[in-house]
Write a structure and sequence with these properties.
Helix content is 18%, strand content 30%. By secondary structure, the protein is α+β, with helices and mostly antiparallel strands. The protein has 2 domains: 66 residues, no CATH class; 202 residues, Fumarylacetoacetate hydrolase, domain 2, CATH 3.90.850. Strands 1, 2, 3, 4, 5, 6, 7, 9, 10, 12 and 15 form an 11-stranded mixed sheet that branches. The chain has a 4-stranded antiparallel sheet with strand order 14-13-17-18, with no helix packed on it. Strands 11-8-16 form a 3-stranded antiparallel sheet, with no helix packed on it. A hairpin with a 2-residue loop joins strand 2 and strand 3. The protein is globular, with a radius of gyration of 18 Å.
Length: 283
Amino acid sequence: MKICRFNDNRLGLVEGATVRDVTAALDVLPASRYPFPTHDVFIARLDAVMERATALASSAPVLPLDSVTLLSPVANPGKIIAAPVNYAKHLQEVLADQGIHHGNLVSEIHKAGMFLKATSAVVGPGEGVKLVHTDRRNDHEVELALVIGRTAKNVNAAAALDCIAGYCIGLDMTIRGPEERSLRKSPDSYCVLGPWLATPDEVGDPGSLQVSITVNGEPRQDASTSDLILGVAELIAWGSSFYTLHPGDVILTGTPQGVGPVKPGDTMHARIERIGSMQVKVS
């Protein structure tokens, strides 16, 4: 299934160029009161919601997909874990370009480790990216994003894929400069997730997906997840050795070579094979 959030927090099933409004399926979610859960309740109960949504689908209102505003498929991620320099060719371009590394010490992922992005950075493709510090270089970084579906700690790589609720496209927007990564990658709107959540049966092997982005029609990044230094399962295992992973947590798997600047007025078009594509405006 391809599951989207749209407009005023509506829930939809994406079918080709249409979306079925199955918002009533959210009624199966338990009521919450303070202190609220620190995980995403929708992702935690995804199976129950999808069972109800499937039952509602045949009679649900059908809307043109291009008529709705797509939000992030995860409303309340507890944390966003990101993998830096996880493609060998991207590591080479970072080391070669002063405009990217800005004098920072850059190491391959085994030495650099992972980092966290603020959850307040999350937006959907229909909301767009609002640049800050426009006197500095602001770059696009397209990535495969995975959403954790169950609580997991110290997961073995062999079992890691069973922890995944689904996949989406991630844009790890980045301000270049000397500061620590999390600061430069966490302004509001600097983590675009979308266009929807594709369940694992839609995606198949996450280690063989073509990932690409264009800016104003100009090709920028185009690579395969087969080039990841640490694959999806290894990233889950490594991340879970440091943190307990909860439903709705997002792991950004790293960006390939070809990162480049964007400016207000640009339009980014990102695509990942078997997931879909999304258009994101920059302001």
